[in-house]
Amino acid sequence: MQGVIDREWIVKKTLFTLAMITVLGIVLLIFFVARESIPAFTEAGPVNLFSATWNPGNGQYGMLVFLTGTLATTAGGLLLGTPLAIGSALFLTQMAPRRARSIMTRGVELLAGVPSIVLGWLGFTIMVPWIRSATGSTGTGILAASIILAIMVIPTITTISKDALEAVPESHLQAAYAMGATRWQTIRRVLLPAAKPGLLVAVILGMGRAIGETMAVALVIGPASVFPKSLTSPTHTLTTKILIEMGESTGVQRSSLFAMGLVLLLLSMLLILLVRLVSRQKETMR
Amino acid sequence: MHENGYKFELEEMDLYYGDFKVLEDVNLEIKKCCITSIIGPSGCGKSSALRCLNRMNDLVDGARIEGSVVLDGEDIYDRNYSVVGLRKRVGMVFQKPNPFPKTIYDNVAFGPRLYGIRDRETLDGIVEESLKSAALFEEVKDKLRTSALALSGGQQQRLCIARVLAVQPEVILLDEPCSALDPIATQRIEDLLSDLKTRYTIVIVTHNMQQAARLSDYTAFFMIEEQGDPGKIVEYGDTNTIFTKPTDERTERYITGRFG
Ligand SMILES: Nc1ncnc2c1ncn2[C@@H]1O[C@H](COP(=O)(O)OP(=O)(O)OP(=O)(O)O)[C@@H](O)[C@H]1O
Ligand SMILES: [Mg+2]
Q: ipTM of this model?
């Protein structure tokens, strides 16, 4: 009897300790990034930091261009990727014959496993020249980055959407068909509304994937520290700017990169909060 | 116009799921504005037979039918027959209540909207009328805009009936509609069906002998001879005869509860 209690006590304490280490790690991470970005806020000031001009030689550390780049490429990737991903999930769950379904599922899983640098490299060597010859621009920029990001978010969004669609009880669909609904009407009026919270979670998680992606984007984004003149002219995102500058920065410049990291961190946390809220809403609806 | 008093006429109908023959040589005439019940042991193909009448079996991979199923003189398995049109005329209520995860109002308005009715007042009227016909209106009139999933099982089942009534079908198929309900809720549904039969042709699958005897005008008894054989109709006739002097001894054994 005593032994059982002891073992339970040990398991409990161990798990607690492990959990604390994780929490501590996250707290330390935020603390460290925040601390390193203090000089940027005190010496350059928030107005400077969130301005549109990046010119360290002149004491200008504005991140607005990069923040815009991050938001634009993420939005672009989702805009291109989401319809394809949800379309694939619909096809997989509603239409595909069993064999095609398993082949496609494997394909999606495979795509999820492709390292981002490979995608970036393919984008750089094949897609960018193609855009260049089609538009007469450099070929790099938000369009190229969005396409690469779309390819990267498709497996995430497809897989999670598929789960969300499969979770809708067959009996709802049967009810719709029995009322004389066509397949498309059943999908639009019953399946999609019932799966909506889950589909939202899928898109938000895809967004999380897109927002932090660095290597693949770095190869096709530009680079240039100015607002792009078009979807096919060079610019930067928060992550690609940090990547390029981090080696040779010191002082306030280095600190301003940490400030960018902090902004990125806060954006991601906002996303997690969003997932939480949506999932909770999903539970109360069931 | 086809006028012999029959809504459905099934002639030598066989049903296959892939290679598996589920039903064999089903001959059945279903009279207009009557309640016909289908009884028989579990697995004999009652639900399958019911699902032949609104072609819900089309959704099953490999389902195939031989023979003919005629509704008002037209073969519903004819190449040119509209399945969507058929299902509008032949509504179905399932064993487990399956309201959509939408509001009570949107559940009832689902069918009318599907057929293109957009006008607010028309929809309001249909919803109220259908809920009244399904004997549910008084209980839910103050919460039409709340989720249908918050209703009790019995209320949900009546809501499903209201949802079917909203498209003004000619036939209502019910597959063990009361099997998940308590006796009081069951009683309400039975009363409701008795009221509805003046306007609708009703076919109900039930495991409850008393229910079949109380409620229906005609009864079909299905059975499988041996494991793996297809289901067949053993006896079909007016409910009184089936329950008081069945001609087949298997029918008698089944309704008196001695096997099945
Ligand atoms: N979708 C399906 N695919 C393949 N076989 C099926 C399918 N649905 C039913 N069957 C088979 O068809 C036979 C008849 O099933 P059915 O559901 O019609 O019986 P039932 O009389 O309604 O039984 P119960 O009283 O238990 O509901 C069974 O052997 C069953 O296994
Ligand atoms: Mg059944």
A: 0.92
* Residues B123/B109, Cβ–Cβ less than 8 Å: yes
Q: Do B160 and A175 touch (CB under 8 A)?
A: yes
Residue closest by Cα to atom 5 of ligand 1: B17
Q: How many CB pairs under 8 A join A and B?
A: 63
* Gap between the Cα atoms of A38 and B168, Å rounded: 70
pLDDT digits (tens, 9 = 90+) for B15-47: 999 999 999 999 999 999 999 999 999 999 999
- Cα separation, B26 vs B9, in Å, equals 10
Residues that place a CB less than 5 A from ion ligand 2: B 47
Of A175, A180, A185, the CB nearest to B98: A175
Cβ atoms within 10 A of the Cβ of A200, count? 19
Question: What CA–CA distance (Å, rounded) separates B108 from B86?
Answer: 19
CATH architecture of the domain B2-99+171-255 equals 3-Layer(aba) Sandwich (3.40)
- Segments making up each domain of chain A, as ranges: 2-49, 64-285
Q: Which of B52, B177, B56, B168 is nearest to B111 (CA)?
A: B168
- pTM of the predicted model as reported, rounded to 2 decimal places: 0.85
DSSP class of residue B147 equals B
Alpha-carbon gap, residue A167 to A198, rounded angstroms: 9
Provide φ and ψ at B84, rounded to 5°: -60, -45
DSSP B79-111: TT--HHHHHHHEEEE-SS----SSBHHHHHHHH
Is A64-285 a domain of CATH 1.10.3720.10?
Answer: yes
Query: Which pLDDT band, with edges at 50, 70 and 90, does B258 fall under?
Result: low
Q: Where do the domains of chain B lie?
A: 2-99+171-255
Which residue carries 């009570």 as its tokens?
B104
3-state secondary structure of A89: helix
**Confidence band, pLDDT 50/70/90 cuts, at residue A20:** very high
Dist CA B67 CA B56 (whole Å): 17
| Nearest CA, atom 6, ligand 1 | B17
**Any atom of ligand 1 within 6 Å of the Cβ of B18:** no
